[in-house]
């Protein structure tokens, strides 16, 4: 134990394993990491230490701590990925950059994900949603599987114009699934392990990207997608030496495409699945939501379809999305590594320590969210104080994919509530023991036309 940690309250647990067992078992309980945090917060206060999964960690919570950790001045903290995550995403990933390098890379990557940048993908996403929901009529479906296929097709198309069906899509999906399940595995790179398979699949995915990039470069396949816009920037190389700032190497492009896939897929899939679950359990919210969408539909000329301007004007839907992210807290804690000494809630944090923000407690603070376990979108009627809601984070690392996620979710909701009612097939509130919180049973439902 680092000597300076002595003053921080908390327990180390058992030798070697520390508190890993209770951490893992409570992590996958229905209340998730909340019970692990809450017990210790009761005993030690807002800031406590632990030894979990081979790491000394400091946990903290509250609006003040989140302000310090998420927006702390440049270079104070860096993102804290597990070793496997670092290797799988690669050294050029946005998640591994800090300070100025991070800012520059983020600017290049976030631009195509702005609201304006997303407009050109609207039609594809809408058509894909309609096609998916056409298959749902009278069926039993696993919401999580459907949502996963949907979000992966969206991002594959957005990034590199992948067709939603066919050999390339399948190859892409297979590689992605293996990479994704290796992301939080143990870092043993020997044949037979999830990590080894993940690194092999990363090579495979990069070969696929190399082929697509080469096709674009020789001009045989010009497309207006994310990759296209990066290649155009990259293409500036050698043009009078200007615009150095706008250049990305192939390695940077590939690591960051993978980063967007990993950061965007499970999160959006989980959000869609929780949304269907919460709506099914809260009929008043579902009725109000359906009213908003039926009204949008009734104002439309018959035969025409959802439009870009309609999807950007769904006020109640926006609140339902926020409330879903609050209740589910898909990423239950945000992890940072201290890049220098600093103070938090009166405790000295030393350079190199892992400092973790417990977001579940922030999202269930009864002072801010009365009756916090209730699903109630009207909580978002009035603006909240900053740092009380962190569904997409805050500060320089706030989610750059948030507009895409909201767009996908709003289109999905529109078609779902206009066409169908549904019932869960199982009563089971367990969650998967993965980094991103999702219902363990993939949420099976039976669907019926309205
Ligand atoms: C509902 C879906 C989503 C949720 C709830 C979500 C949530 C978050 C949160 C909370 C963070 C900040 C984490 C931290 O501060 O440690 C984050 C970062 C990030 N998200 Fe999302 N996200 C979603 C969808 C997406 C999508 C669709 C993409 C990409 C297309 C994406 C890409 C990223 C990236 C690259 C980062 C890292 C940003 C940085 O370090 O600068 N996310 N997301």
UniProtKB/TrEMBL annotation:
The keyword Transmembrane helix applies. InterPro entries: Cyt_P450, Cyt_P450_CS, Cyt_P450_E_grp-I, Cyt_P450_sf. It is a single-pass membrane protein. Its cofactor is heme. Its main location: membrane. Keywords: Heme, Iron, Membrane, Metal-binding, Monooxygenase, Oxidoreductase, Signal, Transmembrane, Transmembrane helix. Heme binds at residue 399. It is found in: Membrane. SUPFAM superfamilies: Cytochrome P450. Gene3D superfamilies: Cytochrome P450. GO terms for biological process: brassinosteroid biosynthetic process; brassinosteroid homeostasis; sterol metabolic process. One of its GO terms (molecular function) is heme binding. One of its GO terms (cellular component) is membrane. Pfam families: p450. Belongs to the cytochrome P450 family. This is Uncharacterized protein. It comes from Lactuca saligna (Willowleaf lettuce).
